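Journal club prep — side note

Before the paper discussion, L.F. wants everyone to see what a predicted structure for a comparable chain looks like in token form. Sequence:
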Amino acid sequence: MSHISTVRYTGNLHNDLTHLQSGDTISTDAPTDNNGKGEAFSPTDLLATSLAACALTIMGMKADDLSVGLAGARAEVGKEMAANPRRVAKVTVDFYLNADLDERSRAVLEAAAHTCPVAKSLSADLVQEFVFHYE
């Protein structure tokens, strides 16, 4: 297995993450409810956001297969934490898609969202709630 990224702890509960193939970087901070300042995504924010990004990516692949446009689609992500042990208990993703999508396309895209690798990799104990809005 080859490495995909590096993570450097920079102090004060911050990390710098670098994607090795592209050189793209992001930072994390601990959340305000866990001793951080909330100055960047927390690691659990990234987990929740990765679910939405993965779902939209798989939906984009299906949209290409269907020859329908998905550009401009967006997702709003929420998460709920639990204690003992501290963990992400629920991720809610509201997807906003084009109202012009026909019923068949909507059904295919909605089903595809749930098949993304991140969704399939998370614990069965983590509730994944996907809500689709057409506007």
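L.F.'s comment for the group: Residues 43-66 form the longest helix (24 residues). Keep this in mind when we get to the figures.
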